[in-house]
Amino acid sequence: MRTYLVTGGAGFIGSNYIHYMFKKYDNEIRIINVDKLTYAGNLENLKDIENRENYTFIKADICDSEAIGKIFAENDIDRVVHFAAESHVDRSIKNPEVFVQTNVLGTAVMLNAAKAAWELPDGTFRPDKKFLHVSTDEVYGSLPDDDSAFFYETSPIDPHSPYSASKASSDMLVKAYIDTYHFPANITNCSNNYGPYQFPEKLIPLIINNALQGKNLPVYGDGKNVRDWLYVEDHAKAIDMVQEQGKLGERYNIGGHNEKQNIEIIHIILETLQEMLPEGDPRKELVSEKLITYVTDRKGHDRRYAIAPDKIKAEIGWYPETMFKDGIKLTIAWFFEHEDWMKNVTSGDYQKYYTDMYKDR
Ligand code: NAD
Ligand code: TYD
Fold first, then answer.
1. Domain that holds residue 109
2. 158-190 pLDDT, tens per residue?
3. Catalytic annotation on 48?
4. How many whole angstroms separate alpha carbon 273 and alpha carbon 279?
5. Atom nearest to 227 CA in ligand 2
6. Given the residues 35, 138, 201, 302, the one annotated as active site
7. Which 8-state DSSP code applies to residue 101?
8. Strand pairing class (259-261; 226-228)
9. In this structure, is the dihedral angle defined by the CA atoms of residues 36, 37, 38 and 41, taken in order, positive or negative?
10. What confidence tens digit (pLDDT) does each residue in 268-321 have?
11. Cβ contact 255:191 at 8 Å
12. How many domains does the chain have?
């Protein structure tokens, strides 16, 4: 039975990945989820699997080399899937330091612990041990508005925000381990994800949540920045496929072939909410285009991201399966069914975050 060490499994993509893996492999695998439970980590995301015998949660900081070393010493880890990170660009602009701490130092700790556990006396690695570093397309910087340009694995690394700079640095560390030690790792660079369990600091869940309450929908700048949206379950599938079928040492871009301007996303959400809310539901009156509010742009706002997922398709056979029109319905349906989840994550600290982040815009 393969043992996975998943970092950041209580966050958005990590929890979707854990659900996906148990759906796919059931009792054939064991998962140890290591998470510090920052504001973004939520054990409610894993409630339905927490009692499985082949699942263990450990609360730990990936920067704590002793705690991470102990997990490797006590478990024969076969796969590391490294999600844990500070993930929000706006927070990174306000407070870059914690991004360097978790994203760079934390990745160094994870690499070091895996290397120590997996390395043989002759400097090679125990067979069939693999580390996958989950990264972002934001490391490639920004594309011009022209829709013929895409990010490829060979595109120059050119991050702009403290978040993307910290992720690019962590990618470089993984690359250094691959190049120096032939460490058995892959890097994946994925475009923007959306779906269940996404924290409402990110565009899509924030717009859904605000619209349902009749609150302003803040659009940064001219609303024409483009992101390439991928349904999170497609990302989870890609990660598993890269880890099992990818060529060790290689980087793979993962993208949705689904580029949209932010303002288009907002219109689609508003239309879909109207379609899905039943007649007589009082929220139907609140959801309106009138809520759209143009606000001061994000500093250093990247204009356009777009991935050409040609390599992963050609080498591994992965492609984005969920059309945006379907994925957004699944996402909205999930939020309708999980009103308590949204209430819980938006109580307390979130209100303060929202006021601080949006007060000067
Ligand atoms: P998230 O913010 O929802 O979750 C991050 C998780 O990491 C949380 O559970 C948090 O508690 C945990 N964590 C943070 N600091 C930690 C620490 N020091 N030690 C242990 N755990 C810690 O993030 P997400 O959106 O799920 O992103 C997961 C990964 O995927 C990140 O590495 C991110 O860079 C990458 N990524 C995200 C997207 C996206 O659209 N969200 C796209 C591409 C890549
Ligand atoms: P976000 O979800 O923060 O992801 P990222 O910055 O990592 O791409 O933002 C997606 C896009 O939406 C980005 O261009 C910024 C924009 N945006 C807004 O216009 N308003 C908002 O309130 C937020 C959170 C984002």
1. 2-197+232-256+301-322
2. 999 999 999 999 999 999 999 999 999 999 999
3. no
4. 12
5. 8
6. 138
7. I
8. antiparallel
9. positive
10. 999 999 999 999 999 999 999 999 999 999 999 999 999 989 999 999 999 999
11. yes
12. 1
